[in-house]
């Protein structure tokens, strides 16, 4: 039975009691407690159920490596599953609940899995759910989904806020123990900008618990002095509760700060993700103690030896009254001393080594504790709590020599340096035979952009596991009991029988046992990466912090090879799980992504516009009136535009000015047509191709002056086309004198379209917009209704049409002025759908509809827009390839259903025969299809094999549900073929 | 020009720093050979000198920032921008240059207060601790391009495209909320 | 996340401020070129494991294209230089040869 001791607890503030609940039971802890220490201090040892077998589980560890005790924390919107009790600071009102059991933690139906656990060997899923095929979807997956997962997901939106921040430093120290602080002091004194990040709420790491002296001071005192000194230095930033999560290329480091986990709802961001660029990362991340694999090593009450003394020293919590120590090294004897110091009992120390003579064991013996040499644990007794251990010869098969009653077992299999950060971007490890551990190879560190070392490991993370070793490395003087070498022991006893190995756990969270790894080896899994995935060893949320080295040692043994030959699995960030909130940070709600707004956006919004996303822009699709469907609204807008006048916010159109002595020559290379000969004040439609010859963008080009042109691009294309221009100017023709500027957003642009367009502009007044003064495809500049304006006579609808650009800051006022002036002429705004229908009625192509990156201008009958006089333009060489001149290319035509209905979008016309895959051959597809309110029938455009030569032919387009659309090939221009309406 | 309205009409929020859209601002882009004596001559009447790499020069309430090896940004009064653009274009008529009024295509913001840089640290991959006053940087604020400079000891000015002004104000407002102080 | 020093701005920019542009020092082949030349220009790329010359644009910064030499395996960046050149600077080539004695050169 665990309990809180009356005295002690170096991290506790007993004057500040905190109330919390576990599974609804009110409990009490103190400021400084973790949820784990508070639970243990409240006598709670059964704290969870394992994932696969639902075995009763309790705390194994005291820190980030804890595999078992993951809880649901909080409730409603602040419910968060899988929170590690050992890294959750206790706060007033905390609500925790255990996971993965039904109906209760004490009585769990799922425990049946443990009774039949022989049916779930390694690779169970791969072996079991293979056949019959239908059963996966209908039987296996639903059942597995029901059983899978640990915690409950919250159902409400997260009320907390999260943020990210960038930071830069010369040196980032990961870990605030003695080694990290010593390194930080040295770097800071050398004038470096230093950041120090410690994942817990306290400085000092293990040394204050483990004892010894540093420069003659007790570790706590040395740490206090070091922090005081660092706090005074302006070039140092200190962070607790901040885990260095991962190292990435070129010194990019992610830090994860838990700003307000312990003060929920206080208005601060809950987590902050640090995006750091560091010149050097010093990994002072310490080491993790390894469990030993013996039968029943997962019974609640079996803990890491270091965790037992952490709970005693840091939190004044006794995990048990009678603590049996099981070890292969001297360090675990510190736990025996801590237990004795707390006035509790150590019935026996079971040491796997044949001869135990070190100073620490001697000190323990001197206090009257029985130390057994060459012994191991055959089996732990108890199910929901430890009741005793059966002791055997380590060398044997597990024959029981003696049984000792106890309520806690403290085990130690040695220590593994935390090499994660060093390894994340390619730092190499070496196997240290004496320490039976992998440690960083300083000669093969991860590198930065300049090829120099990005990381350096210090202290226990570098394999300097003892205080004297790490102090020697840091140039400090230490006094501490010397430790005798450990014996590399992975399984107890060495010849454990199958029945014992079957209950000897390696990966607690995923319920992977010694027998599973050995089975995998027998079944031919020789790679550690494959074994990991087959057995799921190390794949849980603790990422194998306790199990990896033990697992690969056992695999190596099964394969009959040395451990370094087997190697480790790849270490990947994050070191411990980080929240999705921190990853998403500010990118939610209104600022999830940038929405681009035209100057008239608010007006459209107020008029109830239905939006269409165009790139990041939002454009009105239509403006539905009360009771109107979107379709009704579009039809009304089209009819009104064709009979009266319509207004379109065309501000999103790309507008790039190109100027210089070589601008004409440059545009002749960019466009397929000839732009250098365009007279000043005139407009010309132009198309651009990439070097593959495929159509890329189109728009009207206007010559503004002798040496400057304005290039309109598609709405989505402005940035891309501007970048395309700059690419050619900077990287190919850098001696050409051309400057470009993307002025897309400088102007609000409005299309005034329809038979009464001129009347509206004349009402505004200020410019002569007559046919004579401003003929089709020309430009006038002046003041229109008081606004400085450029007026283009261009048409994308076939109607009389003006596009007017005014400064963006006046865009809304101009738009309102136009609406007011147009009222008496029936002016209405129209949206992008009406625009699309009207251009399709005229047979005008749309980039992205008629083009898909494989279409050349010739396919779209745009040969007329390609200059025959030019030697070169981008795409010309490609268009001379044989493939591009094939007579059976798919080319643009109009399509009309025989019955006048609307064709579905994207459907294919079938041809005779089948292709190599047994699919029907095709001979064309629909690229745009609409209901034309003007023509009162469905109209479409499409690409059809040799289409323009097949006018009048009827094709079959299979539709949804087995029907076939009979479709006639027609001219793509459905409306006003002679162009009389625009040219008035 | 009384009907001109800046993107956010001077919207302001005060958290642990004050973030404000600066209202109508004149801006003129000058693309030219920065070493061209004609450029220096064209700027001389304004009292402005051609800024060195990444620098911002200022005179008479106007500033001139280095945007790229062949581009400067003149920040001035909104109403005077068209005239200044025309004057500079005339002065540079004999040179290969592009001068264009871009006042309407951008929004300008100021972030001010002792912790102003803690707002910007959250948005830009830039070392604000070492950024000198009056040095121009073009970078990324979350998902959009910005140009910024420390316009004073405790003030950062930034400009972005007009269409994303609402987004940038959202970023600034969220990043300056009380409780979000970093240090 | 990679960093490159923009040779125009003189500042280190992180990858998120840049746009990659593939292999550097390609020679354009236009009308009149053979099918083989044109194919090589459009499609054939070195894709080495080791030293690679590549194009980057300081898209969120000055907007300029620059070229860089980078080891595609170790990600070490040997240097960056303005794009207005048909071949890498001699001192950069010397520096790379110094660090990668077995390197067969940039062509």
UniProtKB/TrEMBL annotation, chain A:
Where's the Aminomethyltransferase C-terminal domain? 891-976
What parts of the sequence cross the membrane?
none
Instruction: Using the record's annotation, list all stretches that form the SoxA A3 domain.
Output: 503-586
List the keywords (alphabetical).
Answer: Oxidoreductase
Any idea where the GCVT N-terminal domain is? 600-870
Which processes are annotated in GO (biological process)? tetrahydrofolate metabolic process
Q: Does the keyword Ligase apply?
A: no
Which SUPFAM superfamilies does this UniProt record tie to the protein? Aminomethyltransferase beta-barrel domain, FAD/NAD(P)-binding domain, Folate-binding domain
Citing just one GO molecular function, the answer is: sarcosine oxidase activity
UniProt-listed Pfam families: Fer2_4, GCV_T, GCV_T_C, Pyr_redox_2, SO_alpha_A3
Give the top-rank taxon of the lineage listed in the UniProt record for this protein: Bacteria
Identify its protein family.
Answer: Belongs to the GcvT family.
Kindly provide the name given to this protein in its UniProt entry. Answer: Sarcosine oxidase subunit alpha family protein
Organism in which the protein naturally occurs = Paenirhodobacter hankyongi
From TrEMBL, chain B:
Gene3D superfamilies given in the database record: Heterotetrameric sarcosine oxidase, Probable tRNA modification gtpase trme, domain 1
What Pfam families does the record tag this protein with?
SoxG
Cited InterPro entries = SoxG, TrmE/GcvT-like
Name this protein carries in UniProt: Sarcosine oxidase subunit gamma
From TrEMBL, chain C:
Q: Which GO terms describe its biological process?
A: tetrahydrofolate metabolic process
Gene3D superfamilies under this entry?
Folate-binding superfamily
Gene Ontology molecular function: sarcosine oxidase activity
* A Pfam family reported for this protein in Swiss-Prot or TrEMBL: SoxD
Residue runs in coiled coils: none
UniProt protein name: Sarcosine oxidase subunit delta
Annotated source species? Paenirhodobacter hankyongi
